[in-house]
Amino acid sequence: YGGLLPVATMxxxxxxxxxxxETVTVERTTKVMSAYQFILVIVLGIxxxxxxxxxxxxxxxxxxxAGILKVTQLPPQCTLWRFLNSxxxxxxxxxxxxxxxxxxxxxxxxxxxxxxxxxxxxTTVHTLYGKQMGARKSYNPKNKGKKSYQPILSFLAETxxxxxxxxxxxxxxxxxxxxxxxxxxxxxxPRCVVTIFARADSxxxxxxxxxxxxxxxxxxxxxxxxxxxxxAELVAAxxxxxxxxxxxxxxxxxxxxxxxxxxxxFIALRSENDEEEAEDVVQYxxxxxxxxxxxxxxxNMDTPIHELVWFYSQRAGAENLxxxxxxxxxxxxxxxxxxxxxxxxxxxxxxxxxxxAW
Length: 358
Description:
Helix content: 25-40%
Structural class: alpha+beta
Largest sheet: 11 strands, mixed
Radius of gyration: 23 Å
């Protein structure tokens, strides 16, 4: 009661029903409830902790939920499933459009006028245990060899909101897919935003991502991936002591990776490697050689090295938001073997997540 009633009041205040009816086009003719009621019951079900449709039977006669939906009881699981499977490919984009308009309404109601925002972009791995379409055997450190999805998500660090994202198959996103995602992110930011900062890990280290950042005049810092040419630059660089970071030494240089349009500023930290780690390994945010461990970033900002390193370290908050999305919003629960259905469920789950942020 204490959690759901304020959310229902907020949805009524910002006109959620009107937004859904104006934006979402459902081809299936529904009888038991309207399309708006079906979407609302799935979103509120995820919000209160029921990420699976069959779990909604536990609250089918709950007076508060039924009162919000203006029905006597919720329909059975099979009816909810038929509705979810009937949603077409454009529904995911329509739900994102609803979220953009809701964000503008919530910011206006809360007198939130952020001139500068920080966008944290990351991917996560969802291990799959069924026969879902789009599953791939790819990067999966916790469950090696198992098939998975790799969704792409972007959050606003200042408000903890999910800004944009999509369900992606288990393959690593290509440069074109990353650029398309970043373009969607910057296009849905509220109009009051003037300055954009962006942080991303090595999965987004590519020319297409940098080009997208530059196109929207974004101040970015991205972790670099290990290449032989980059290692040669690191060996030849002039290293200095780094008293204001947790590393032993630091350096910076201009470098143009292969296929990039122009050189950029690279900053690097290094510490001596343990003797036990004799083999070359690739780790999150760093790569190691037999002698040193390196952390390398590419950026278009002129800020001192220690400040940039501190700024990037704050991106750890995005990982916590992804954990909340997976565990609390049911993002990792992919209910169908159909990829399209899972795409639409992904957007509904993130809408439920944003209800909590708003």
